[in-house]
Recover the amino acids of this structure.
């Protein structure tokens, strides 16, 4: 499944170093965690019941489809959380490795 | 003003157009309201502000509506220092004069209120179809938010499906931003739009904008199909293929890289439910809305509703409704409120409601698409409940109430608390139970927390310790407001 997110020039803000599932994955200032992950791949995580890839749905904090873990502990909605330098994003909340 | 009235704790939930105008009217009357909002900045979804690093001129962000967006943002700026604002704060429960709060870093808090204005907005109303739970399928609102707040296209070859004004607006915005829109598949037939014209004449400027988007899409050769019935979204490995049926009944397919869907708006009413407000069924909206008077007074004397969360009439009506709710509060605590202004707002809202009736004619919620969806269609994304399982619960066990069906099947019991599937599930239940409308199958009761909050035993015990004092307290922070 190819990634589909496309940044417009206005989204090319300065780079911010974050880690996704243990790998360095540059994000940009002002990115949500969701944008930062979808910059690198097509899906955010896998649905915990079906293991099917999910990539968020409503992007307004309503559908609860985009939970990820930060720094191994804090659970957040990826669509409503902004990246910060050094952030460690863990998308393996559910079973399997995300696509 | 009598000093007692000035001490009234008025709490507003939501800092979109309704919440901001409510706060403004209260501040102008000398009060200091508390405003609680989940977003990083005021504006709600419609006038959502990008993060600092993504700021762009208002004209680029909000199109024709840029002056209105800017006015709401400026009104909010001018209120700083005069309101107690808690951004990034979720109100997740509401009972007996207290809101329970959660902030991602500051943890839990409580906010007591004497008067509560709920301006909680709306989200996309969706209809499930096979394949809608895969990555790369979004709501129309999601597509717009990504563009507006992140300057990112969710896809460069999107297929937009559903119905409603947002369908055309988002397609226009994506195409203008450089996307090659694969198709706009509108479930509503062309005749419906013509039938709506008399009502839409209530707001000529608004109708003209809609005509402009349609003309623009046509001039740029974006395929727009009226009366397209979506059947399924399939992933063939390289793209999303939307299967649909045209007005003549022929099967068609359109490929793109993402699919975005929506069928109008669904009011966010869960806090009002927890606050004990009565609801009425709206046959036009086919959803339950909080019972209220013209100024937003609910059946609970201390609770008011405003904006799309009360009735989806759009941002302009929301600004007026927010102001009206604030004036109702002022009247009820005996500090004016200006009845003539309330009357003027009521008259203006009547015009907007007529326009909205036009929109509902032009882009009617195609209830039958939900009611007749295939048995293997996943209805509840959170708990993975299919339409077939819901129908079985209705037919084999004689269930006729959506709450019973929820208990039986877990449909609507998951993390989103039925926000996404609730209205469509009600259509499936109603059709299976032989009810002509979803009124006959009842209203899903809200449960706290209205959105998931992390469990933190220490913070919970601290919060429990503050119970009964009426004190606002926040674990490790002050976002709960001034204790008294």
């Amino acid at each position: 499944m190819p990634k589909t997110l496309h940044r417009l020039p206005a989204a090319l803000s300065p780079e911010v170093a974050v880690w996704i599932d243990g790998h360095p994955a540059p994000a940009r200032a002002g990115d949500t965690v969701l944008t930062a992950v979808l910059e690198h791949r097509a899906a955010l995580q896998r649905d915990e019941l079906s293991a099917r890839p999910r990539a968020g749905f409503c992007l307004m904090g309503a559908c609860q489809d985009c939970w990820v873990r930060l720094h191994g502990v804090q659970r957040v909605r990826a669509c409503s959380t902004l990246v910060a330098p050094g952030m460690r994003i863990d998308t393996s909340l559910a079973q399997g490795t995300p696509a | 003003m009598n000093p007692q009235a000035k001490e009234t704790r008025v709490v507003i939930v939501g800092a979109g157009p309704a919440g901001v105008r409510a706060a403004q009217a209260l501040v102008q009357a000398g009060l200091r309201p508390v405003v609680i909002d989940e977003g990083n900045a005021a504006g709600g979804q419609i006038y959502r502000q990008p993060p600092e690093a993504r700021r762009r001129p208002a004209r680029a962000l909000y199109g024709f509506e840029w002056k209105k967006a800017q006015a709401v943002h400026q009104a909010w700026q001018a209120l700083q220092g005069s309101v107690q604002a808690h951004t990034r704060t979720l109100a997740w429960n509401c009972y007996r004069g207290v809101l329970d709060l959660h902030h991602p870093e500051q943890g839990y808090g409580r906010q007591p209120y004497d008067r509560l204005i709920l301006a909680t907005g709306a989200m996309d109303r969706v209809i499930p179809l096979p394949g809608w739970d895969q990555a790369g399928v979004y709501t129309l609102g999601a597509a717009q938010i990504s563009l507006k707040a992140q300057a990112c296209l969710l896809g460069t070859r999107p297929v937009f499906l559903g119905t409603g004004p947002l369908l055309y607006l988002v397609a226009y915005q994506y195409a203008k931003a450089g996307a090659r829109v694969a198709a706009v598949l509108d479930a509503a037939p062309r005749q419906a739009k013509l039938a709506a014209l008399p009502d839409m004449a209530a707001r000529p400027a608004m109708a003209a904008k809609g005509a402009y988007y349609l003309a623009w899409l046509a001039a740029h050769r974006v395929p727009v199909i009226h009366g397209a019935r979506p059947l399924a979204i399939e992933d063939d490995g390289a793209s999303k293929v939307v299967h649909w049926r045209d007005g003549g009944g022929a099967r068609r397919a359109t490929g793109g890289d993402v699919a975005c869907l929506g069928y109008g708006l669904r009011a966010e009413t869960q806090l009002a439910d927890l606050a004990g407000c009565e609801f009425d069924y709206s046959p036009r909206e086919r959803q339950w809305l909080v019972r209220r008077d013209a100024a937003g007074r609910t059946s609970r004397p201390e609770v008011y509703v405003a904006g799309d969360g009360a009735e989806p009439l759009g941002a302009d009506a929301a600004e007026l409704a927010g102001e009206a709710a604030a004036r109702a509060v002022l009247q009820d605590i005996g500090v004016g409120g200006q009845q003539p202004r309330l009357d003027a707002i009521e008259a203006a809202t009547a015009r907007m409601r007529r326009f909205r009736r036009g929109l509902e004619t032009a882009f009617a919620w195609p209830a039958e698409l939900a009611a007749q969806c295939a048995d293997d269609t996943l209805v509840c994304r959170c708990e993975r409940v299919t339409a077939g399982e819901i129908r079985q619960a209705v037919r084999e066990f004689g269930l006729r109430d959506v709450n019973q069906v929820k208990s039986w099947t877990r449909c609507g019991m998951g993390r989103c608390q039925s926000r996404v599937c609730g209205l469509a599930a009600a259509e499936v239940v109603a059709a299976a139970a032989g009810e002509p409308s979803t009124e006959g199958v009842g209203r899903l009761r809200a449960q706290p927390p209205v959105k998931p909050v992390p469990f933190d035993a220490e913070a919970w015990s601290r919060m429990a310790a503050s119970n009964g004092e009426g004190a606002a307290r926040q674990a490790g922070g002050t976002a709960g407001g001034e204790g008294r």
Observations:
- Residues 45 and 98 of chain A are 5 Å apart (CA to CA).
- The longest strand of chain A covers residues 67-70.
